[in-house]
Design brief:
1 helix, 5 strands, binds zinc ion, mainly beta, 28% strand, single chain, 10% helix
């Protein structure tokens, strides 16, 4: 995943910073505890596509 992309994208819910998590293959918003999936390396920044993180996921 292109890390330059990470600097320009933001959470569609809270507009906060997203963190790439290799083991989740997705982008994490810590504030909302949401994980946005990647499809073919492209982040899917849709709230209804996001997965809610478990409690343990929010403590990296
Ligand atoms: Zn957010």
């Amino acid at each position: 995943m292109d890390h330059r992309l990470l600097e320009i994208i933001a959470c569609p819910v809270c507009n906060g910073k997203l963190y790439f998590r290799q083991e989740k293959q997705g982008l994490i918003c810590k504030a909302d505890r949401l994980a946005f999936p990647l499809r073919d390396g492209i982040p899917v920044l849709l709230e209804n596509e996001a997965r809610t993180l478990d409690a343990e996921d929010s403590h990296p």
